[in-house]
Amino acid sequence: MSKGGASVPDEEWERFLKEAEAGSPGAPEEPSARARMVARRLQEEPGPPEGWRTYTPAQPRRRGKGWYAFGLVVAIVLLVTVAVAPGRIVGWFDGGEATDTTPLAAESERPSGPPAVGAADQQPTLDQPFSGSPAARWSDGAAGIHLPEARATGWMSKAEVGKALDRTRDFLVASGLDPAVLRGERPEKAMALINPHQSDVQDFLGKAFRAPDRENDPLLLFSRFRSADVRPAGDVVKTRGRVAFREGAKGAVEISTDVTYVYPVVRAAGGSDEVARTIVRREVVMSWDDPAKIVIEPGTFSLVSYKVDTTNGGCGTYTGYLTPKFLADRAASDGGDGPAVDPYDRSAPMEKQMGEAGDGTCGTATRS
Length: 368
What we know:
With about 375 residues, this protein is of the alpha/beta class.
C-alpha cells in the first residue's frame, strides 16, 4: 500500500520477504534486531520465500544455489553457470537478436519470455564486443536501469521517494558499473550507502574482502575482476533491469531491483584480442527506513535480501573476483554438469529459474 491513492498489486510483491511484525512504539531499534524476528518466523515456515511475481514455468534443476542467513533477513542465492551446453548451440558466443539492432525500450515490467536466438556465426570482437548477444540492443550503463515514477509512500514524500530511487541507482552503478570497482578496487562508494548500524551486513562485508569464501563473497553484491588477469573490451557495460518499490515494515520504503550486467573482457596480456563475456544478474532488495523507528544514518539503506546469478564468472572459486574463461580455458576444463540455462532470460524471478538445486555444482549456459 502507499500514500497518494496509488497501490501496488499483491502479486507484484510476492518476491519480498515477509515483513517484520510491528514492534511497540518507542526508541528506534537496530535493523538486525528487526531482522532476527523475521528470521525466526521464516525458520518456522517451510520453503524459501516466493518470487515477487507469480510465474510457474517448467522447472529444470539449476546448480549452485545456496541460502545463507546473517541475522538480518538476507536470502542469498548464488548460481554460477560457466559452460556451454554441447550440441545445443554452435560456439560459446551464439545467440542474441543479431538481425535487429533497434535499441530496446526500457524494461518497465517483466518480459514474457527470453530473447530470441540469432545467427550462430556472430562472435564478439574488440570493435563489437556485444555481437551475437541480446545485449547488443540493451542500453549502456545506468541508462539500462529503469526507475519508476515516484509517489508518496510510507514515511516518505514523493520528493523523498524520488531521492531514494536515485540513490538506489547510485548504489547499482557504484557496485556494478564503477570502472575502479571493476578493476578490483574496494567498492567504497557503494558500501557508504549501506546502513553502518546494520552490524550483520558490516560483518559480512569485512569478511568478504578480508577472506572471501562461499558464504562471504563480495561478488554477491559487487562486480570485480582481477586487473592482472583481464581488462575491459571497450568502455561499455550493457545493462537491462528495473526498480520497483512499496511500503515495507514500519513504514519504510522497500525498493526491489533486478538488473543484468554484461561485461566484455579480454586477457590482460598484451596483444590479446579474444573477447569473452561475463553476465551477472542481481536481485537486491533494500529498505529506506524511518530514522524515528530504525537506527540508520541519513542517506543510507538497510539490506533486506540479495541474490546473484553469474555466467562465465567462475564456479566454486571464491577469490572475490569474477574469473571468466576463454576458449583455451574451456577446452581444458570439464565444464558445467548442471542443466542448461539462458543467462539472458529475465522472464522469471531468479528463485523460479534456479529451481531446487542446492548442491553447489555448476550449471550450463546456452549462450554468452
